[in-house]
Specification:
By secondary structure, this protein is mostly helical. Helix content is 76%, strand content 0%. Helix 11 (216-225) packs antiparallel against helix 12.
Length: 527
């Protein structure tokens, strides 16, 4: 039965690659990237072998603990991620629990993440070339550590099955955990700045982790190399107890999930207010705007962007403060508002892709291309412009330089207009393989990244070129210090931004009217 499950995983993986050439290209690129990273890790481990045993152990424990923690966190962040061998698919089959657990665990190594983790974990033996006995132990512990990663991932996925079946849990958990991940750089930088002596702190941290489930398995070879066989035995027992506990949790949760599959239905809701539909006129454009604005608030694929967009300028603020000091924070914050507004405006470039089969309603009701494009633009502009204005005002307050406020505001208008105009064209011309309705916004499908990156690069590059006229005035205003150029930048931003929007709606409407049936067919392929 275990062999059958492994063959099933290979068959499903092979069949998934037959869907399109882009999926094969995506897998090849991911494989090359994985092999490259694996090669760098192995070379680094071999070079690390020249250090003393304590240093090798410190690096192994810290890096290994981070790997296990990553395998624990990723399933929660990507709670909507598709599992090739989803255990709930075996509900109607009388597969022995032991065979199912072993088969699912070993199938985790069939794939780039699992294979790279296994090879890298066992590759830690390369760092013990001066200690042969520790090297042999590292091979065994590396295999155990890789298996621990797989079992930990399966256990936390199974334990959260009933919660993960709730769309609200997936939305909140994925988006909330996305915030610290995006701010990981500033967090690490701040912690590093607060620690005066890393050379003394890191070994102490590694020693603490070596007695926990995260780092015990990685610390065994170092204890053997230093002759501390008692400590090595205790830490190996901790590692065995860890994987045993994880396997037991996985078994209990999986058994419950197979007998009583999670139910994702929601409660009935009574009639209520019309929401955003009361905000807009009763016209096709107003209806589209209200529907899209509702999606921006209630659909996690959109609402995640509302969190990401304000965070990106904060990352720029952190980088600017590191380079130019605290005095530059206000200026960077003010100009960062244009980038935040553009990110929201550019998000509608995937609007029709996100609609999926619901796009048929637009065609069935005969909504014109102009009404469709205009409604989507209005919904995004309602969110993008206030956000850009807020960042510009806060930047002026922090820097105390209100003379630069008109220039930053002009940059917000032109960036928003360029994003909305280009997105109106791109969304009617290009369909991307985005997460389906109800899926996690973190989900990524094989083969999608290559084409998506090309479209995103074209959009960002085009928007950058469209913003050049206003950006030149902004630079002149900043260098010369004359307020007149700032006001000229504001006027130019409004004029150019409005022109880009009008041209984008007109061009996008023509594409929409000509390619409506083709767009519906494209978004209906993956259901």
């Amino acid at each position: 039965m275990v062999a059958h499950l492994l063959r099933l995983k290979l068959t499903l993986l092979r069949n998934s690659l037959k869907r399109s050439t882009m999926q094969i290209v995506g897998l090849i690129i991911a494989g090359i990237y994985g092999l490259g990273m694996l090669g760098l890790v192995l070379v680094g481990l071999a070079a690390l072998g020249a250090a003393d045993a304590q240093t090798i152990g410190t690096v192994a424990v810290l890096a290994g603990s981070a790997v296990i923690l990553g395998w624990l966190v990723i399933p929660v962040v990507a709670s909507g991620l598709d599992m090739t061998l989803d255990p709930t698919r075996f509900t109607t089959y009388a597969i022995p629990m032991k065979s199912l657990l072993v088969g699912l665990a070993l199938s985790g190594f069939i794939g780039i993440p699992g294979a790279v983790t296994l090879l890298a974990a066992m590759g830690t033996a390369a760092s013990w070339w001066r200690h042969p006995v520790a090297g042999v132990v590292a091979l065994m512990c590396g295999a155990l550590a890789a298996l621990t990663c797989i079992v930990a991932s399966r256990a936390i996925t199974a334990a959260s099955t009933s919660l993960a079946s709730s769309r609200r849990f997936k939305d909140v958990s994925g988006i909330v955990l996305l915030v610290p991940l995006m701010l990981l750089g500033p967090i690490i930088g701040s912690v590093s700045a607060g620690i005066s002596d890393l050379s003394a702190y890191l070994p102490s941290l590694a020693n603490t982790l070596s007695w926990t489930p995260l780092g015990a398995v990685w610390a065994v070879p170092a204890e053997v190399a230093q002759g501390a066989y008692g400590a090595a035995g205790l830490k190996f027992l901790i590692a065995l107890a860890t994987i045993a506990a994880l396997a037991w949790i996985w078994k209990v949760c999986l058994a419950k999930a197979l007998v009583t599959p999670a139910f994702a239905g929601g409660s009935q809701r009574g009639a209520g207010k019309m929401g955003f539909f009361t905000w807009f006129p009763q016209t096709p454009t107003g209806a589209v705007a209200a529907r899209c604005l509702t999606y921006w608030i209630r659909d996690p694929r959109y609402s995640a962007g509302l969190i990401i967009a304000p965070l990106l300028p904060l990352l720029l603020v952190f980088a600017g403060s590191q380079a130019g000091g605290l005095g530059s924070m206000g200026t960077v914050l003010g100009y960062g508002g244009a980038f935040a507004a553009f990110m929201i405006a550019w998000s509608i470039s995937s609007d029709i892709s996100y609609d999926n089969t619901a796009f048929a309603l637009h065609l069935a009701t005969g909504i014109s291309g102009r009404a469709d494009r205009s409604g989507r633009v209005v919904a995004a502009a309602v969110l993008a412009l206030p956000l850009g204005l807020l960042f510009s005002m806060v930047g002026a307050v922090v820097s105390g330089n209100w003379a630069a406020f008109p220039a930053t505001l002009g940059l917000v208008f032109v960036a928003t207009g360029a994003g909305l105009g280009l997105a109106s064209i791109f969304s009617a011309r290009f369909i991307m393989n985005v997460p389906l309705p109800g899926e996690s916004p973190m989900k990524s499908k094989p083969g999608n990244n290559f084409s998506s990156v090309l479209v995103q690069l074209a959009g960002f590059g085009g928007a950058g070129l469209l913003c050049v006229p206003v950006a030149v005035l902004v630079v002149i205003a900043a260098v010369s210090g004359q307020p007149m150029f700032g006001w000229l930048a504001l006027v130019a931003g409004v004029v150019f931004g409005a022109g880009y929007v009008a041209l984008g709606i007109r061009w996008g409407a023509r594409e929409y009217n000509q390619r409506g049936p083709e767009l519906l067919l494209a978004v209906s392929v993956d259901r």
